[in-house]
Amino acid sequence: MEQTRIEDAGSLRALIEAGDAPGIEEYLKPLHSADIADLLQQLDVEEQIVCLKRLDTQRAAEVLAELDAKSGQALLTLLSDHEVGKILEELPSDDAADLMSSLTPEKTERVEALLPSEDREDIQELLEFGANTAGGLMQVERVSVRDDSTMQEAVDVVRRAAEDVESLQRVYVVNETGRLVGELSILDLVIKSPQARVRDVMQRSTVAVPVDMEQKHVAAMFSKYDEFTLPVVDGQGRLVGRITMDDIIDVIEEEASKDFARLAGTTDQELGETSIFKVSRSRLPWLVTGFVGEGLGAILMSRYEASLATFVVLAFFIPMIIGTAGNIGIQAAVVVVRELALGQINIYRMGRRVLKELQVAFLNGLVLGGILFALVYFWRHDAALGALLWGTLLLVIFVAAFMGSSIPLLLHRWRVDPAIATGPFVTVSNDVIGMAIYLTLATAYLRTH
Q1: CATH number assigned to the domain comprising residue 330
Q2: Rounded to 5°, angle at Cα 404 from 402 and 408
Q3: Is 138 inside any structural domain?
Q4: Distances (CA, A) of 109 to 65, 87, 112, 256
Q5: What is the DSSP letter of 204?
Q6: Is the same domain home to 124 and 153?
């Protein structure tokens, strides 16, 4: 599949180099906007501009909305103010606001002056909200009717708004003050009597998103209620916009990128970064943290130098025991961070989550310890040493599971992003504590044998 996309990009580049404008138009015409965006990502910015100008305004707007932030920003910089303004007019307000936020202040001011007053006010309203909140995600385009309207009046409203509102599945019902009181499905508009009052037909148990809710919690609401769109309300319960599933998919991808980057001890901004110095700067702090932590482990080992020198075989099992404990800790931390991100763990279930991880760790420790015992017995014919290693591994794994599952929960309790507790931090803490446990028990073993 990837090979096909590369060949397509090469064919498109050949048309650009030949200056074949009609050929470019014909080539792009049957493609979906998302596929065009994929092709543009493989071209230089100048080549992207050539292709973008061969599309009509609506298609160009759709393609820009599919591009990543950096590519979209670069293209908008090279387009004229008039071209940018026309593109923004074709986009839903949420996508228009996202693109507008990537412009320089000077270009933003010039483009805003070219927009119709209604579009300008919508974009300015959205830009006032935090980028990672429901207000920053929502689009102001929605269909709403008064609760004292008739169903025929509601149908007329939908017909007038159909061209401006994409993915129309719900008609929201408000009272005389604009407060959200219910919703209608499109099916209601078809099967209910035109003379019926909206208040008598509407569904009253409407799930709404507070305008200041964090985007990861908004994504959790979509997952919980299995909705394609959700209304957004302000502090007084007034309807101010709606969020659609396509925006939530982007949020899930963004949050996942952040979490996985933090698990690796880096940042999600690195993914599109070309400067090796900036990439190095994002990774180095975590590497230094890990480096210092492992240094503490080396100092700790030096305090048990006599034990290791007396019975060198003890050193052979350090990587196995510490590495296994690190894996257990990371597994527990990743599961907990994921459930926290999805809103599946609250403060009242923290103890239950930790207990479950400890039970799983105990079971895994029994199995892995048994394997280690068998290995030592057949290799060294020393059942006492095998039992020591079995018990040590079980205890170290138990501690690692506790650290991996409890630290993210504690940070969440203290309102700190739990993703930062994983990766190098959990690994280092497990290494130091695990090494201390192992060497302490090994020294006690030597004193009795």
Answers
A1: 1.10.357.20
A2: 110
A3: no
A4: 21, 16, 5, 34
A5: -
A6: no
Q: Is 259 among the domain residues?
A: no
CATH code, domain with 78: 1.25.60.10
For 23, 28, 37, the CA distances from 10, given in Å and listed in that order, are 14, 13, 15
Largest CA distance in the chain: 94
Residue 151: domain span: 144-243
Confidence of residue 253 (pLDDT cuts 50, 70, 90): confident
Query: The domain that contains 158 carries what CATH number?
Result: 3.10.580.10
User: Residue 130 has what DSSP assignment?
Assistant: -
* DSSP SS3 for 327: helix
Mean pLDDT for 57-63 is 90
Phi and psi at residue 232, to the nearest 5°:
-115, 135
> What percent of the chain clears pLDDT 90, i.e. is strictly above it?
34
CB 372 within 8 A of CB 324: no
Quick one: pLDDT at residue 2? 41
Q: Is residue 354 part of a domain?
A: yes
DSSP three-state, residue 230: strand
Dist CA 383 CA 440 (whole Å) = 19
Query: Which uninterrupted H or E stretch holds 86?
Result: helix 81-90
Residue with tokens 């160009």: 60
Which structure tokens are listed for 415? 């309102």
Q: Are residues 283 and 396 in the same domain?
A: yes
397 shares a domain with 292: yes
Average pLDDT on 146-167 reads: 89
Confidence band for 7, pLDDT divided at 50, 70 and 90: very low
Give the end of a domain, one of 86, 103, 128: 128
* This model's pTM is above 0.85: no
Q: How far apart are CA 13 and CA 26, in angstroms?
A: 14
Burial class (CB in 10 A: 0-12, 13-18, 19+), 217: middle
Number of Cβ within a 10 Å radius of residue 30: 7
Chain-wide mean pLDDT for the chain?
84
76 in a structural domain: yes
CA distance 83 to 417: 40
Shared-domain flag, residues 181 and 316:
no
